[in-house]
Fold these 2 entries.
Entry 1:
Amino acid sequence: MAGPLLPCRPPPYETRILGSQPARFPVHIRNIAIIAHVDHGKTTLVDMMLRQAGVFRAGQQVMERVMDSNPLERERGITILSKNTAVRWGDTKINIVDTPGHADFGGEVERILKMVDGVLLLVDAAEGPMPQTRFVTRKALALGLKPIVVINKIDRSDAEPLRVHDECLELFMDLEASSAQIDAPFLYASSRFGVAFEELPDKQGVGGRVSGVEAPDADTLHPTPLHPFIVPGTPDWLTGDLRPLFKAILDYVPPPEALEGPFQMLVSTLDHSPYVGRIAIGKIGRGRVRAGQTVALLPWGEPGLVPEGTFPRVKVAQLHGFEGLARVEVEEASAGEIVALSGLEGIEIGQTVTDPEAPERLAGIAVEEPTITVDFSVNTGPFAGRDGRYVTSRQLRERLFREVERNVALRVEETDSPDTFRVAGRGELHLGILMETMRREGYEFLVSRPRVITREGPNGEMHEPYEELLIDISEPFVGTVMEKLGPRRAELVDMRNPGHGTVRMAFRIPARGLFGYRSEFLTDTRGNGVMHHRFLEYGQWAGPLAGRSRGVMVSMVQGTAVAFALFNLQERGVLFVRPTEPVYEGMVVGEHCRPGDLDVNPAKGKRLTNMRQSGSDDAVLLEPPRDITLELALEYIEDNELIEVTPGAVRLRKRALGQNERKKRARSARAAVD
Ligand SMILES: Nc1nc2c(ncn2[C@@H]2O[C@H](COP(=O)(O)OP(=O)(O)OP(=O)(O)O)[C@@H](O)[C@H]2O)c(=O)[nH]1
Ligand SMILES: [Mg+2]
């Protein structure tokens, strides 16, 4: 184990805060990112670190997962944007970046790794390493970062921390970690209860042994202030706190290099404010920067000196450092600190900002290329404009191009039709979030089925994106899953049966093969299975794939859905609409339980001979309809269908609404295949 860091050189980091507020100096710095697969507990851990480091006032009401601050993140319980925060632990400032775990945002995590000097790699004590764990670990190891492994959620009843410990080591070997990296410290933690242990606590005992950190006096270099925060309901055997984690960060994460010389900083992430525009966030690599200073914005390119005259010079309007949940305005900051610069008009991720006298570019990380594309177009349905505020192609165009300003992995292109825009992104979640955000802002539009973006292989052949698919299901469902994935061209890569009834299967599958699979998977496994997928690589075009195995029920009338009609239809499949919902001709109102589409009349009421009969409609027993979320819709629809997105509704519809037109198109499509 590495010993405590000795104060062998003068503390180089300095941040002068504007105004009279005295800053607590000198400080040491640690810059860390928290990385993991989705839902392994990163944001919950940051909550507890903030609490125990005393960021909140005593008694202050703080919402859970406070870093997931935007409404969509709160609603979905996931992190979408990475965020910076900082805590003080003794005389050390720890800058923490909470990152998103969903695979669509992997590129962002990769860039974040450039601004930190260490990572906390969280792994769920039951799930073990997952596809995204492998991805972020590979990136962190390749950058030479030495992780601190935190086996989290040890409180879970199905936790198997020792097995997961072994699996992490196996992963490190697989990824050819250096011996120093394999020697990473392992901690056992529960972010929910705010505890971390160096040794696995005994479930029968009281409190874990947190060797070495119980006596703060023994380590005078790192006084360990702690703001006790005991989560109600903490089991006895989990008595403890996060001191072992803070200690590990101080001991194992190297302080940032504090290079003297002309200012130089790589922009790792962007933020946006309606007042100051783009905000560039990164770690100062060398020298210092002041508010009001003129800097050079170097265009992307090879590392090294950039010729004079090829870059703009701009003034840093404001300079902010991170402190708890706030950003504090500072007048100057030096190498090693993570700062936010505003006023740099046109700045992009991956660019280097320097002293104009020493325009030396750093190696950036290219923004990941999109893998799927959809068409956004003006709503042409009969309900167009009913509840949206922005419905014209001009408004749609303006909004989409504005998005590109801050959503770096997104591309928007015009098409031959002035009403349609091609939007390319990293996956269904990436595009789904854009769609959801726009709908909340009052936009209305149609979205097509996603298409994969193909590339040309080395010999001119066509390549398409492949995904890594991981499925956890109970044994009896293995057969069904294999049967369904075969025609989708999935290749079984690994299968593990640890013997407790749940089987884990890993596949390599063309991204196209996954379209429409999630809803089938949920039906087939009756909601018991878990599936995760992430982009793996480009590979040979897999040839034609079968589409959705079931057809849909299409409304042949415009009107209002009636319980009586829905009751009769639910025998034919799963409905997507509720009674009293408006429907129109060509709208998809449910899934047919067989192949082939079915024209139906969801508005057909019982003949109203007297009041009692129509009143008795309410008593009809209806299955709850399937909720159509945007991501599900994106995965679900076929080429001849569209998603209608409005502030009040997400509907599925046929491209051609009229029955005759649909038949005609279906005939010509069949003819084209034959
Ligand atoms: N049992 C248990 N559940 C936990 C623990 N930590 C977090 N959770 C739960 O796991 C879920 C995900 O937690 P988050 O902190 O949002 O996970 P995350 O890694 O930030 O997720 P993303 O940002 O979406 O990748 C939430 O429901 C938490 O309550 C833990 O230590 N034990
Ligand atoms: Mg999170």
Entry 2:
Amino acid sequence: MPAARAQGTTARLDTNENLVIPRSAASAALAAARRAVDVREYPDGGAERLAAAIAGHVGVPARCVVVGSGSDQILDLAVAHLLARRSRVLVTDPTFSFFEARLALHGMRAVRVPFGPDMAVDMGALEGAARGADAIYLDSPNNPTGFQFPERRLRRLIRSFGGLVIIDEAYAAFAGYSLAAMARAQENLAVVGTLSKSFGLAGLRVGYAVMPPAMARAFASVIQYPYPVSSVSIEAAVASLGERGAAAAREAAAAVTSERARLVRGLSAHANIEAFPSQANFVLFDAGGSHRQVHRALAEQGISVRLIGRVGGRRGCLRATVGTREQNSRLLMAIRDIMG
Ligand SMILES: Cc1ncc(COP(=O)(O)O)c(C=O)c1O
């Protein structure tokens, strides 16, 4: 759960929303939804049009796509119903905190492989730990480090593993590759995605997963709720996935990528800060022992970033969403003032 932000926050850089895509892109989609929807009626139960639009965007057949109320909901249902009770689930440490909380809630056991001080995971260690696990969950790129697992090694791990593998690609739009197409025919693979980040539609709550057809059928018709996505969200998302919306998402992703590099350079210019390379729309940086003071001082200037703490043996990490150019400049200037 995101912590409550301090009053007076003017730059929300703590929840990895897409603040770069113009607000007008979503407004146009909402206007289309308003024209199309009669909220007296239930939504399209299977959300088939939405699944088809997502399938077109991702480049996979619609029969491989399931949708949900945010990818959070899909992950929750996957943990509750695709895994056997008391499964040992391989995750990295750290990983997406919501997923770990769901594992605990459903009585699953996490097998954790830590990040190193370079904010990368040793793939040999991961492969070794997989031998003692029943299922695997990897967020790739990882939240909060921004690390994307090396593609070849990850594909090999998935192919050689006997149980379910969930690859969470919430941030793939900002990364080097996606495994979504692999999930068409790889029996043990579900690749989870979301329109929250790539399309800047976090408030609409539209997530999806690409799975082999048999798994998708079972998920959509047995596991998922009858009306998982509201009619307003369905119509607005379908409109966003059209040509203009997709172009806006692509442009925003390109802007995030170049601003991300500027943030990493600007942060790393300080002797007491080390910023790590990222494949997501956020940057993790180690502020040594002074991360709490930095967090507080930024909050006083209306800038909220996420206090992460110890990661990969580093003493005190913070995570900042890549915002608009103006927001990123404000963050860099504030850090310059704080670090002196
Ligand atoms: C790795 C990861 N997966 C999934 C999500 C959830 O996204 P959604 O808005 O689709 O529920 C997040 C949100 O921050 C995330 O960091």
